[in-house]
Amino acid sequence: MRKSIYYLPILIAFICISSCQKGYLESDTLFKDRMTEEKVFESKNYAEQWLAHIFEEFKGINADVASKGNTPHNFSDDMYYGDRDKDYDPSKNELSYNMFKMGLYTENDKQGSWTQSYRGIRNATTFIHKIYMNKEMSADEIEDYRGQARFARAYLYWLLLRKYGPIPILPDEGLDYTDSYDELATPRNTYEECAEFISSEMLQAAKEMEKLGLSRGQDASARPTVGAALATRAKALLYAASPMANGNNSEFAAKLVDHEGKRLLSAEYQEVKWAKAAAAARDVMELGVYELYTVPIQVTGNDATIIPPNDGNFANKDWPLGWANIDPTKSYAQVFDGTLVPSGNPELIFTRGNNQSSEDIRMMVAHALPRSATGWNTHGLTQKLVDAYYMNDGTDVPGKDKEIGRGNGSNRATGYVTANDVAARRYRPLMEGVSLQYANREPRFYASVAFNGSFWTLFNETQERNRNQQVFYYREDSRGNGFNSSNAYWLRTGFGIKKYVHPSDTYEGGIAERIVQKAEPAIRYADILLMYAEALNELDGSHSIASWKGTTYSLSRDITEIQKGIHPVRIRAGVPDYSEAIYSNKAELRKTIKRERFIELLAEGQRYYDLRRWLDAAVEEALPVYGCNILMNAGNRDLFHTPVATWVLKTTFADKMWFWPIKHSELKRNKKLTQNPGWTYND
Fold this sequence. Notes:
The protein is mainly alpha-helical and 683 residues long. It has helices at residues 34-42, 44-56, 97-101, 112-130, 139-164, 181-184, 191-216, 226-241, 251-255, 272-286, 328-333, 361-368, 383-388, 419-423, 443-448, 525-537, 559-573, 580-583, 586-600, 607-613, 617-620, 637-640, 664-669; strands at 16-17, 28-29, 79-81, 348-350, 379-381, 449-450, 454-456, 469-471, 496-497, 523-524, 543-546, 552-555, 626-627, 644-645. It has a two-stranded antiparallel sheet with strand order 1-2. It has a two-stranded antiparallel sheet with strand order 3-5. A two-stranded antiparallel ribbon has the order 4-10.
């Protein structure tokens, strides 16, 4: 695997980070005069280190997927974090899940992304305009490096747009950072302008990287590629096509204006935006570089493939037309659990690898592991997410969403797996004593959900007796995994997280190295496929949209094309296709695609932002959280498995929560910068 340039050590002796400038005006004094500037960009080594410095801004709080310290946005109505709760540990002075969900954060919370992004944007702009000076690289290399810097700049704008909403696009040239703040003041651009800028920059970056970056292909997912640029472009255009920015006539949208009172979210609906998003996603698909990862079927042994029921279609065909020769559970699980290095993951489009100094994905796993594996046992899942997973025949689980008023009148399954069931290999992979509510579910469920009585292999435990554990979450559980009022280390809903957990993972001794390293799935191919299907579904007419290569796509709500986005995801997951009735109904397919994203993209930093771009957050994030009745012990197992409102996980939604607030110090510096609605600012 090629090493990412931003993994290079930053050794330039004359780097001096200025402490007197902040926000998007903050500047790294990487050179002191013209001669030093030329020295930096004439040298390939120094130029690479400058570029590496830019990509350092992608990490920490700018990561997409990590534990809660830097990325609370990775938790929404699907999963939660239970530690850092002041109600149980008054010593904590950090943003707890309840504070996050109740909108009790302030303009000073989690604001490093603004500083990091604009600092990286400015340094990327310098690189783009100065790399031509290099005397040690070929013309093709210079063009490729310029494309990588352009990607970095546009990606940082994308992260800002997603979090804060419309943000200022700085002038590409002619901005003198020695000017006064009043002279530098830059207003917010509209959402559409931001998305179009990101789109055009990513398109240009793809063309600049085409000669060398395309040959890097998926093997270099940890550095900018043509695919990464086109994929980010597709995401920006999809967000711009979504209800938040396309035909938003809400009271909130009317209040979101620039310094002159101009609306920043479009009230006019334009269907063509969906067509542009579909075309951009198709550009990635047409590259022929990416595919969903699969594991061959295993027919014998204790770890043999759990074969989905015969659906009369996918079950009888080999991949990619069906699942007959693959193991759906392992195929999905190994994308995330560290089995694959980035270069061996064919669906990983872009990653930052180890994206944190402390609260990375391994730490998220440490907080998901049970106490019996020395895990923190605090990161869990909601009943709503657990109910979203299909049965293995593609139907809904009985009792789905009953408690939140969306049920179909059915009741949840009763009964438990018996010793005879286990001996007969019935209900695999469930073990004795597990509720039949978790039986016969789709493969992604077993790769993602730690239900009461699920099995943990924990192969990195030093003592063999501590491996291969069945873990229960009943109160008074002998291994300490259940409710414990004396500390915070218990699952609030009785559901834990298996996604990202490798069979070897354990946190024995509090040693992170016992957890296999995971690569961040910042952008992966399954997301692009679902984006393509979503965008096509919204079309009523036909649209001709140029591809990134200059050819033309003819786009419409064509079921066969929509299935090109849906089928690979469903087949790899081992789940039957949607019915004809769903495909023929735009509203039903829209709802179903949203559910597919809810399941497929769990814990990948997508749900929080999806709910906002769809304008669904006001409903979905205000619903009460349900889960198991964790106050019950094993003697009251029926009551334990009867969903109840989880009183310790609070929910609400206010308009101010659509976008993150801008820090007051930035508003004071930039007189043309306006605050997001709902957040007060007094000069």
